């Protein structure tokens, strides 16, 4: 047993007792004994002090990111929920470190049926001393060999075995299967392991052995295995407590209180690692000379001080040191000390437990002391039992104080006045020591009276629990794989995006030539961007986005002033009759004029009409087809300016001069062009999506003139309606398209714009639920509802600051039962869908800027893009992803994106102003 540390020899010269040395035995022996045993007495106040100080250290460590090294580690274990009981399957568990110099392999079968347990088959292997202190590779190779030896005796099918690695040492975990050893404890000190990922070391060793196809899917601390292994009784165990060779506890903390988890929500099992608790203020008074001696001779002096007062590896040694001390002072064994008694580690936990066990009786104590080469008197036996009692009582009380600190923390983190909780306990000290558990429970009752605690002894040392975690890890790993498979089609690479760009450029050229193309490339009769000389008051209408607006735009020397009012377009009007829609529009205009005191004034009006229109002139636009949820009858194929004028005439209200009809992309380009003359492209990514740009007039078939420019409304929303985007379209895009009011139409728009992204996400969530990946496979009613998952949720969910918290709040409001893992998956789905949308939009812009550059035969092009639309403006990453994609696909174009402040209404007014200025010039 010298792995407690290399100092056994020191005592040899002291083997002769006071009587043998002819020295008088001290008369005040009882005083000396009392003084010695008194050292192990811990007062209620001291226990409270320890409870309070440990609680403070725990909360400090939760808040800070490990600077300075906290008294206790508070390590997240990535176990986020207690067992559902639904976990099932066969799992291999490898236990290393829980039971000192032994390693255990278990075959655990989880039945998935509550209360139905299959007793695990297991095999224990003694770890040779030189392996515990040798090179790390040797230890992991030893573990791999034990695994193989165990499996050699079990029928193993070819398919890969899933293994849970119970590794009972302090580790920084970054996932269920990623864990870096911080420091060895409990007699282990292998080289080349601290700071390494122990899962990788085990995987490498298994690989080196190459005997079995074993997948290490989870690494678990023994306290977690103990907690997860407890039968879900009245209430699930939310604390795991181990007192074996070492000691430690874990509990389910609110994840948001764990700083390193960055605002996560839900719960996270945290391994306290209280073995390293060493607050001199609290511990100083209870540390005895024997504790210092034990620590001094240990493998890790100065570390794990709290553990060295409680752990089974140390209790025997503490007793031995006290016995040696008392013998040396002649009050025990007549002052005789045997070589065995002077040998470090010669008294084990089981010795202490037996010597204290009233049922074991004096005979057993006598036998144990005889084995140590001693011939105890009856008084010696009584004193030895008192020493064992003192050492173990203190250990149990200290452990009780520590557990009381954890319970107080749990109560605080749950903000409960009282706490009902079940604590799973495991470890040889609990199993072997007759009174440890009861003393501990009494101490907890004393120190945490507001907690109603039930103790659930672990039945198999946590093997079942480790298998539970492994099952959860395996399930999560399988789910992550299914999630990746589901989202893979949304992960577009550079080659695919460049193909979209090239296809769009070809479609643009064909559209301009008037050939078959999914891009209609509609001339807008806007030939110039504003030059700043425009002046006057104009009315503007802005229809087709989220809101319908009526605006008064005053273009003056000092700039442009806008007064506007938002009006709603009820769905029944948007999908009613055309007459009803345009009468509604005129009603809004009249209402606006009344409110603005414009009644009776006949101001020129610019009409932003954000739908595909074949323009015959600036004030004539034939609606080709509705998009974005509009479907008013008797409009398609009609001149919408005429329909508006008819509505004005029907109202007999005022004479309005409709001067121009512009697409919102054109309005946006003009609006931004007023500030930046480089702005020659308009981009909308809102309810719908589209772009326009200044094309060379010579390239525009069907419009007279070879010089100068014409703004072209690309109507890129329809890109791919000829099937050219088929290779990118997913089953979810097909579902969204089929359920839309214009199936087969606007395919590009349906992959990008705000009206559809939420729906794509909803369909993916339904699919993942059907695979059992989300919401435990429970089909959720509300997710069956169209448009229930708003696109604005993506913008909120993907906001960097409050990711998971936001996800849960939003989805809980939707009535979705959510685990943190579900939340993380929903976030990844949203990210994949919005990223694809932004990249496709970027590929489109890259096609446009490259066309302009090539049109002008330029090496480099500097151009600005006026942008509007809720999705582009509100989504936290959309705009930067678009810009990044353009930089990658059109490196020879310096593109600036200008977010339009005043919307395209201002643009419509400016187009009207330009038209009026040009008309004025002709007249003079
Ligand atoms: C602004 C413009 C509208 C445009 C809309 C698109 O509001 O003024 O003309 O239609 O953006 O974005 P949205 O998200 O509203 O569909
Ligand atoms: C380790 C813990 C472990 C405990 C009980 C301690 O030495 O640091 O990780 O849980 O022993 O085995
Ligand atoms: C329409 C375009 C419009 C775009 C953005 C599309 O659905 O077809 O005309 O520019 O939405 O609002």
Give a quick set of tags describing it.
Hexokinase, domain 1; alpha/beta; elongated; 924 residues; binds beta-D-glucopyranose; six-stranded mixed sheet
Descriptive report:
InterPro entries: ATPase_NBD (IPR043129), Hexokinase (IPR001312), Hexokinase_BS (IPR019807), Hexokinase_C (IPR022673), Hexokinase_N (IPR022672). One of its GO terms (cellular component) is cytosol. With 924 residues, the chain is of the alpha/beta class. Among the domains are: 223 residues, Hexokinase, domain 1, CATH 3.40.367.20; 174 residues, ATPase, nucleotide binding domain (Nucleotidyltransferase, domain 5), CATH 3.30.420.40. Strands 1-11-10-9-12-13 form a 6-stranded mixed β-sheet, sandwiched between helices. It has a 6-stranded mixed β-sheet with strand order 14-24-23-22-25-26, sandwiched between helices. A hairpin with a 5-residue loop joins strand 2 and strand 3. One beta-D-glucopyranose binds next to helix 6 and strand 10.
Could you tell me how far the N terminus lies from the C terminus, measured between alpha carbons in angstroms? Answer: 111 Å
Coarse structural class: alpha/beta
Sum up the overall morphology in one term. elongated
Uncertain stretches: 1-25
What oligomeric state do these chains adopt? Answer: single chain
Rg computed from alpha carbons, rounded to a whole number of angstroms: 39 Å
* Cofactors, ions, other ligands: 6-O-phosphono-alpha-D-glucopyranose, beta-D-glucopyranose
The total count of strands amounts to 26
Task: Please give the count of helices.
Answer: 30
The biggest beta sheet is recorded as: 6 strands, mixed
Query: Percentage of helical residues?
Result: 40-55%
What's the CATH topology name of one domain? Hexokinase, domain 1
User: Taking strands numbered 1, 2, ... along the chain, how are they ordered across the largest sheet?
Assistant: 1-11-10-9-12-13
Percent strand equals 15-25%
Mean of residue pLDDT? Answer: 89
**Highest-level CATH class of one domain:** Alpha Beta
**Which architecture of one domain per CATH?**
3-Layer(aba) Sandwich
């Amino acid at each position: 047993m010298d792995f407690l540390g290399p100092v056994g020899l020191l005592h040899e010269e002291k083997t002769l007792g006071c009587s043998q040395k002819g020295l008088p035995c001290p008369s005040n022996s009882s005083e000396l004994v009392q003084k010695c045993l008194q050292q192990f007495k811990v007062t209620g106040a001291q226990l409270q002090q320890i409870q309070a100080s440990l609680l403070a250290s725990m909360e400090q460590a939760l808040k800070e990111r490990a600077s300075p090294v906290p008294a206790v580690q508070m390590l997240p274990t990535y176990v986020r929920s207690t067992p559902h009981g639904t976990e099932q399957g066969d799992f291999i568990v490898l236990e290393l470190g829980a039971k000192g110099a032994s390693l255990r392999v278990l075959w655990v079968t989880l039945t998935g049926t509550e209360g139905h347990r299959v007793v695990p088959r297991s095999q224990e292997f003694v770890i040779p001393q030189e392996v515990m202190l040798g090179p790390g590779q040797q230890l992991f190779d030893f573990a791999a060999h034990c695994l193989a030896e165990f499996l050699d005796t079990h029928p193993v099918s070819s398919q890969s075995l899933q293994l849970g690695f119970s590794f009972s040492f302090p580790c920084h975990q970054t996932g269920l299967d990623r864990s870096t050893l911080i420091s060895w404890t409990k007699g282990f000190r292998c080289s080349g392991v601290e700071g390494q990922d122990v899962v990788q070391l085990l995987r490498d060793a298994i690989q080196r052995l190459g005997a079995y196809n074993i997948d290490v899917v989870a690494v678990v601390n023994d306290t977690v295995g103990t907690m997860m292994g407890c039968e879900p009784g009245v209430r699930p165990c939310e604390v795991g407590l181990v007192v074996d060779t070492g000691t430690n506890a874990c509990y389910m903390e609110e994840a948001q209180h764990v700083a390193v988890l960055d605002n996560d929500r839900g719960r996270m099992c945290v391994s306290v690692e209280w073995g390293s608790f060493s607050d001199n203020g609290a511990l100083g008074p209870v540390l005895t000379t024997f504790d210092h001696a034990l620590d001094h001779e240990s493998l890790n002096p100065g570390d794990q001080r709290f553990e060295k007062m409680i752990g089974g590896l140390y209790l025997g040694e503490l007793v031995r040191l006290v016995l040696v001390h008392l013998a040396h002072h002649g009050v025990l064994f007549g002052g005789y000390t045997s070589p065995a008694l002077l040998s470090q580690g010669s008294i084990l936990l089981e010795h202490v437990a037996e010597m204290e066990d009233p049922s074991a009786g004096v005979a057993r104590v006598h036998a144990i002391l005889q084995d140590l080469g001693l011939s105890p008197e009856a008084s010696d036996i009584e004193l030895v039992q008192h020493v064992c009692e003192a050492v173990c009582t203190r250990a149990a009380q200290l452990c009780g104080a520590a557990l009381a600190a954890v319970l107080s923390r749990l109560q605080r983190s749950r903000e409960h006045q009282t706490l009902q909780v079940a604590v799973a306990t495991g470890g040889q000290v609990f199993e072997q020591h007759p009174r440890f558990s009861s003393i501990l429970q009494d101490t907890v009752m004393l120190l945490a009276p507001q907690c109603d605690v039930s103790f659930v002894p672990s039945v198999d040392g946590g093997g079942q629990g480790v298998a539970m975690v492994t099952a959860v890890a395996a399930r999560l790993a399988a789910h992550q794989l299914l999630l990746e498979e589901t989202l893979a089609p949304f992960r577009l690479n550079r080659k695919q995006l460049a193909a979209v760009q090239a296809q769009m450029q070809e479609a643009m050229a064909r559209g301009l030539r008037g050939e078959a193309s999914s891009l209609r490339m509609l001339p807008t009769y806007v030939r110039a961007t504003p030059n700043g000389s425009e002046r006057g008051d104009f009315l503007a209408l802005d229809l087709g986005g989220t809101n319908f607006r009526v605006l008064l735009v005053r273009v003056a020397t000092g700039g442009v002033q806008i007064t506007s009012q938002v009006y709603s377009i009820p769905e029944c009007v948007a999908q009613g009759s055309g007459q009803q829609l345009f009468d509604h529009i005129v009603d809004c205009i009249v209402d606006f004029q009344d409110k603005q005191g414009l009644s009776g004034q006949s101001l020129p009006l610019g009409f932003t009409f954000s739908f595909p229109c074949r323009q015959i002139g600036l004030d004539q636009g034939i609606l080709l087809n509705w998009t974005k949820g509009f479907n008013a009858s008797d409009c398609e194929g009609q001149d919408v300016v005429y329909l508006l004028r008819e509505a004005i005439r029907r109202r007999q209200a005022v004479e309005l001069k409709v001067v121009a009809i512009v697409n919102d992309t054109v309005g946006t380009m003009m609006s931004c062009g007023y500030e930046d003359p480089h702005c020659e492209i308009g981009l909308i990514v809102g309810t719908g999506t589209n772009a326009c740009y200044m094309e060379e007039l010579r390239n525009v078939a069907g419009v007279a003139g070879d010089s100068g420019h014409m703004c072209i409304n690309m109507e890129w929303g329809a890109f791919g309606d000829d099937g050219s985007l088929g290779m990118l379209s997913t089953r979810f895009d097909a579902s969204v398209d089929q359920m839309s009011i214009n199936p087969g139409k606007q395919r590009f728009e349906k992959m990008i714009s705000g009206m559809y992204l939420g729906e794509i996400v909803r369909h993916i969530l339904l699919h993942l639920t059907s695979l059992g990946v989300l919401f435990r496979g429970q089909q959720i009613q509300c997710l069956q509802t169209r448009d229930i998952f708003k696109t604005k949720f993506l913008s909120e969910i993907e906001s960097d600051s409050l990711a998971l918290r936001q996800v849960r709040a939003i989805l809980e409001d939707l009535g979705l039962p959510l685990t943190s893992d579900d939340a993380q998956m929903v976030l990844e789905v949203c990210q994949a869908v919005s990223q694809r949308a932004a990249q496709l939009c970027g590929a489109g812009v890259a096609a446009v800027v490259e066309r302009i550059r090539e049109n002008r035969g330029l090496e480099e092009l500097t151009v600005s893009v006026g942008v509007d639309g809720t999705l582009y403006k509100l989504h936290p990453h959309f705009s930067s992803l678009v810009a990044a994609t353009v930089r990658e696909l059109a490196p020879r174009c310096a593109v600036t994106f200008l977010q339009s402040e005043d919307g395209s209404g201002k643009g419509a007014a400016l187009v009207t102003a330009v038209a009026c200025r040009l008309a004025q010039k002709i007249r003079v």
